[in-house]
Amino acid sequence: MRIRVLLFAGAKEAMRAGAVDVEVNASSADNTVSVAELMDSLRQTHPPLAKVLPNSLLAVNQEYAEDDVRIKEGDEVALIPPISGG
Amino acid sequence: MSSASPPPGGGKVNWELWILRAVGVGVALYIVPRWVHFLSFLVSNSRRPSREEQQLVLRSLSILEDHARSKEASITHQITLEELGGIDEQDTAAGVEPVSGAREMPMAPFWTSGSSALSSAEVELYGRQLILPQLGVAGQVRLKESSVLVVGAGGLGSPVCLYLAAAGIGRLGIMDGDAVAMTNLHRQVIHNAARCGTNKAISAKQTCQHLNKQIRIDAHDTPLTPSVAERVVPQYDVLVDCTDNPAARYLLNDAAVLFNKPVVCGSALRWEGQLWVYNYRSGPCYRCLHPQPPHRLDQSGPEGLFNALSPGGGACDMEGVIGTAPGTIGVMQAMEVLKVCGGLGDHSIGASNRMVMYDGLDAEGPFRSIRLRTKRPTCAVCGDHPSISSLQDSPDDYIDMCPADLLPPLPPSAHVKPSQLASHLHRHPPSEANLSAPPRVPPILQDDNTYQQQVGGGDGGLGAVSVVDVRPSAHYAVSHVRHSLNLPIDQILSQSKEELLARLRGPRGNNRGAPPSPVSYVVVCRRGNDSRLAVSKLRDLFQEEADDDQGGGGEGGEGREEKGCTFLNLQGGLEAVRRNVEPTEAMPLV
Questions:
Q1: Å from A18 to nearest chain B CA?
Q2: Which range marks the domain in which residue B342 is found?
Q3: Which of A6, A16, A20, A51 to mutate to test the interface with B (most CBs of B within 10 A)?
Q4: What CATH number does the domain containing A68 carry?
Q5: B274 and B375 share a domain?
Q6: C-alpha distances in angstroms, B154 versus A79, B184, B206, B251, B335?
Q7: What is the ipTM of this complex?
Q8: Is B285 a catalytic residue?
Q9: Of A64, A9, A58, A42, which is closest to residue B283 (Cα–Cα)?
Q10: pLDDT at B385 exceeding the cut of 80
Q11: Distance between CA atoms of B520 and B465, rounded to whole angstroms?
Q12: pLDDT for res B457
């Protein structure tokens, strides 16, 4: 299953792109992946993101998502690291 | 004078009369021309004064008048501000002058205001927002009775302080330990060029007090520390996070939770910003969203440290920021404060627990928002079993660490003093002409673009020097040491030994037959932290082999070629070199 992840702040800077597509193996039962699985795939397939992942939020359909939230095809996924500057 | 002939018919000559006549004529001849001259002078000066003369007189009069008026005003307003707690001794010492215009106008006998809690001056000042039905007189009185602490008087704090002061927050605290600098002014618009060197809290207070003399403003000219937070935070109702580093954000969060204060939190970097209200209406705190401060994240070696502490970019001075990004977020922070304080909390983004994200470069729509999580039961400070019950419990979280702080120290011989490099560069300014010739230089230094200064002894011990600048390429592009090599820190940390060797050698560095000779790479950055990190890695990669006369056994020729090269850290960075340059403006630095 291909998931498009929108990137913000440090994540966008690390990839020099506003979004990345990531291929993950969906569970056969309901064709979904968990947030934790998506994070793992991102870490492996997009190494520059590794440094921002531990402190970032993942939002699915504009809502904060815990590690066990299931993502299905077509969901809007956003990776949001904190910004510290001011 | 003619001799007088005797008059006909008279025998006796009146000599006295003739003498008198002669004297009279003489006197007249002497005096009349002078009188004519005097009279013509009078006539010529009786013309109307010229325009310039009129203006001069008027200007002098108005200066005198202003002077008299200001004398009177300063006496009146000193008293008013003392009563308000507006200006204190500290401000007077810092050159903050009293503001003008505090005159309370009694109302006409037939006229009354809708609330005794607002003075006629306040009614006039806040009239345009008072007539908003959602706020009204009651809301304005709530604002007047509120106290708000703004932590950080920088890019976010500038609009926050200005709008909160203007809107009539009754007591405004402004905290900042830094001084105004020229590089701040493109975004920190509450300050001005004349205040460079003044503490930011005091400068911000001065501007705000000029904007609104009706409110009390307290400047806390100190950085936020645990003890300062314990003393100051309890005095206020609402906190505004306008800080610029993770350590201050975690400290303010923990203080907010421990003293039960809501926080309107903003942040901005590059073209982006984030805004949310936390510890509000049983919502989450900062740690619920970001449980681990950066320095607690995975950090093995220089690279891990750099990634952990600069996750996608740290501060404005490294990453850059467009002034309107913190400006936009700051204005929205002020809006949230006004809602929280003015009785419109239901309309706050804190009530819906949402975070607003702003991206000034997003043409599709620069704003979006996400709904945040609820409280994290395992949160270290607001969870069910908190491990932090005082600001003394987690001191490391509140120290603004840079990666170099967490590394083992470099040996003293691995440092160059800024004055040493400054005097070296002054005496031997890098130019095309004195780029080194191949025979004296080891292969690693063969690079047309790299400055290699061939200098004998008696030069502060620097000898042949090659300057490696590890700042981001955008910073390097603005200004740098002539013929220095730009090798950004993230590349040094992420690239392999072979890649780095190629970069250090440069495009034509393949003259392997040349004999090695001692050469120093002086590694520089802005403040001397990233360069220390770079030197640490470069020494690990190259210098240990070079130091080891046995050549490290299994290592091939690559290592041997660097024999004799040393990597030196410029202490205090280019900023420190700049302090050795006269005038400092001759070395603009970003």
A1: 10
A2: 120-404
A3: A51
A4: 3.10.20.30
A5: yes
A6: 27, 8, 14, 18, 18
A7: 0.95
A8: no
A9: A64
A10: yes
A11: 5
A12: 37
